[in-house]
């Protein structure tokens, strides 16, 4: 039976790689029994209609149909349309999946289905050209007035409305070409930022509508980031006025403790960022960092970086280092770096005091017994104080095994949880205290007391900790120590990703990503490696705002923030991803011409770099066609183009092909731009370039919520995008980037923003594409 299973697995592996999946992706698919069974059915059905050789485009449609179909009974129906070449695009497949989802009853109405999915609709280049021409004609006056400040997305949207089943990229290219034809190349004025008052799409970083916490309520104001975080705007209490906060518990000792607190802090705002050192920070932590450090900065205060290192089983030194690196990368310097373990002695002393006051006891219920919201009451809750003191000392001395005894506090939390655990036994050496302790405090016990020791004024945490607010106040008051105020804010989540440590480890183990810093992830180390500037991440957090409600955002909003920053920060260079050799037969110099290229064309005062122009240059394969269709503006026989920055126009004289008929070289002549007829387009080029590797990234997951079983029944590993990474091994880049170091950023003209990857080595640089130059309308 084992041999038969192995044979079946090998057969399925061959089927899956035969449709274009990588071997790693195919093996990962095999581990998902339900998905692999559906995909096998789909491939066999398609092969029976089309033969054994299926192209990658068909394979991708089959994979997506198998992975995203909610009801497998419709698989054969959909595959039939794919095999008959009646469903050809992901747009059609999305419509087909939505149709079968919304029509659960059989039989399906084939005619209605076909109409809903665009079956048989053939959109020609001429139709796209005509649709774009019509749309541009309607907006011609505004285009001529606003030029490149006009919202080009409006043109694409209206063209798509006219031709629903047209390919979005083709429409975008046609819009770009016709706009260029109408307006000509961008001028310096076009490259200047549009005045904020006229900005129609994304709100500026500094002014935006945000939900502001007002003692638990939410109000809407238009505020800058610092204004959002100033105490008056948030309606937070002033230092020393904790008692004015709703729900704050005032005891006979409160006012004296607050006076002592003010004497120590001088009325200074104090916050803390308290991560657990058991994983890498992600985009959600960026909001927490900005909120805690930003609130302190906006109010003239300080922020501690405190590691919550109370669980020695899960902590690793690399996490401590990476967390601090990321805090500093985002532009923040901790006032002081502390650890919960710094206070273990004091916390133990306070635990003894809590027992003496009759507020804690040693319990022997098992972990399984006290889980959930309605566990049975502890039979040891009323044991004598002296007995609990002796037993707690025995816990410290290691006389109890793990799980045999805990110290519990006598309180009921907001969520109904009764008597939370304060200490548990763990025979695990601690990275800082070694073997000194075999009992470790819990978050519920440690957090508020560490805040008290550090005289934190505002304990800012995410909304899920609201249920712990009363226990926070209770414990400080039970020990008669200074009690800070806990304030909650909404978590920041991002669609199309996972951020939990367990799930990222699974992605690494299965080979879906390389490591925690794989640029397809949304950990902060991954975002840095991909090339996202820290300012962009901080601006994104500012746009999300200080909301009390959970915020779930689209990745393209973060990408928009990156474009804004990189447009100002990333010097320009030229690179070619798919090179086509071009020989200039009448080169106007003995060997070389030196070309000055502005680092920032919109502001030439920021300097130039030199690029050599030789008789041999390389252009993008896609910038040449043997036959120029109507609307095509780039290089073709009889249709010259300009070379960006070079001051020359080239015209094709001879097309050289290999034995298979593929174009491998062009012979051209050049003419000075000032005497040549103005070309329809200018293209980028490289000459005597550096060979490099370029990594092009797309979303890692196909669905917005890969962890949602209703959206992805097969689990998040079944939702991986097979096209999330494309590696261009033999790209070319101009030599101006030779001295660049890892994480240096460039705009490769006409291609996007790119960052030097740490994998770069002498003789072979590696670049990661951070974002494209413009937002893909399909992702918005």
From TrEMBL:
Single Gene Ontology BP term? glutaminyl-tRNA aminoacylation
Q: Quote the EC number.
A: 6.1.1.18
Alphabetically, the GO molecular function entries are:
ATP binding; glutamine-tRNA ligase activity
Q: Where is the signal peptide?
A: none
Keyword annotations: Acetylation, Aminoacyl-tRNA synthetase, ATP-binding, Cytoplasm, Ligase, Nucleotide-binding, Phosphoprotein, Protein biosynthesis
> Is Protein biosynthesis there in the keyword field?
yes
Described function = Glutamine--tRNA ligase. Plays a critical role in brain development.
The name under which this protein is listed is Glutamine--tRNA ligase
Q: Which species is listed as the source?
A: Lepidothrix coronata
Q: What is the lineage of its organism?
A: Eukaryota, Metazoa, Chordata, Craniata, Vertebrata
The record's gene field reads QARS
